[in-house]
Structures are given as C-alpha cells and as structure tokens.
Design a protein that fits this description.
The chain is of the alpha+beta class and 208 residues long. Helix content is 50%, strand content 16%.
C-alpha cells in the first residue's frame, strides 16, 4: 500500500509519551506565503461568486454602489463577525465530537496572523476532523450565498469573499488530512495537526 507522500513540514515525534507512528504537521513560512497567495485568488473568486445573487436580484448584469463611511464600517463589522462565527462553528463541531474547544490567536509560520480553535489532547477520528475543518467554510458560504439574494446582500459580498479567502488554511488542513490512512486519529494543535497512525510504525527519517 502506498503511504502518505514525503512532506518536509511533517515531522516524526519520537518521545515516550507520543509513542510510535506519530507525525506532527506544522506549516512553516513557505506555507504561509503560499496560503496568502491562494487566499488572494480565492477572495477574488469569492467576490465574483457572491456578487451573482445580488445581480440576479436586481435583474441587471451591472450595477453601481454608493459607499459611505457607515457602509464601510458595516462591511468591516460583518467581516469581523464572520471570522468570529467561523471559529465558533469549529468549536461547536468539536463539542459535537466530545472535545472541549479553546480559542485564541497565533502566527502561521511566524508570518500570518490567524485566529484558531483547538482542543488540546483530544483525538478525533480522521472523518471527524475533516468535518471539524470543513464545516465553517461550507456552512457560512452556502448560507451567505443564499442571504445575498436578500435586500442587504450588497453588504455581504466583501465579508463573505474575505471569509472564503480566510478558509484557505482549513482547505490545506483538509488536503493534508486526506493523505493520512483512514484509521489515523488527529489532534488539533494551535499551529498544526498531530497525526497518530494506528498500527503504523514511526518512520525512520524526517518527513513521511
């Protein structure tokens, strides 16, 4: 059977407490740069996506927006609110699987500031962790897209697009988790993931 590909950011853990078959994935500075570039592209795509319901509601393929200070403050407030709701959804998903989430802020790769929700010491099944990682992006984007058909849809375009761009880190976490065997358990860290490969011995070298 072909195992996970070698990943320079996935480091075997060989202490007595962790045991064999434990890998810690901690994104570094290069990942932070990559995520930023991807986030910009996803945000632009999000602007196009979330504009569509507004245009469909107005019945026009083009439109004009008058933006004042109050409008800018409202958009900023909604953006911050979505980021907070995003982490709250992570927390609810974790609690649904029996974990006790905590919240905070960190620097991904010591470069990019980010909010986080974690559950120190709790081991999720791989399928559970995928749900935890993906639920905020899916929930907020789908409900937000539908909300853009409403009268306040114009105010939601930028916050939803920025939020979608901010989900890039979760997307990379999902892709990295999918590379693990289905029996792997996942422990969320503030700045990464600890994988425990059930029945798999610890690799001899750095990476996997």
């Amino acid at each position: 059977m072909i195992g996970p590909k070698r990943d320079p950011e996935s480091v075997p853990v060989r202490d007595q407490e962790s045991g064999p078959g434990v890998i810690e994935w901690r994104p570094g500075a290069w990942s932070a740069i990559t995520w930023n570039a991807a986030a910009i592209l996803v945000t632009v795509a999000g602007l196009v996506l979330f504009t569509q319901p507004v245009m469909l509601r107005s019945g026009s393929a083009s439109g004009t927006f008058q933006v004042g200070l109050v409008d800018l403050l409202l958009v900023l407030a909604l953006t911050v609110l979505l980021l907070v709701v995003h982490e709250a959804i992570h927390g609810l998903a974790m609690r649904g699987f029996g974990a006790r989430p905590t919240f905070g802020a960190t620097l991904v790769g010591h470069v990019v500031p980010a909010l986080y929700t974690t559950a120190a010491g709790h081991r999720f099944a791989r399928s559970q962790y995928l749900v935890v990682a993906a639920t905020p992006a899916v929930t907020i984007s789908v409900l937000g897209f539908l909300a853009c058909f409403g009268p306040w849809g114009g105010y939601l375009i930028v916050p939803l697009a920025v939020h979608l761009g901010g989900c890039v880190g979760d997307g990379f976490a999902v892709m990295r988790t999918l590379r693990e065997p289905s029996t792997t358990t996942c422990e969320d860290l503030r700045d990464g993931i600890r994988f425990r490969r059930i029945g798999v011995p610890a690799p001899a070298g750095r990476g996997t």
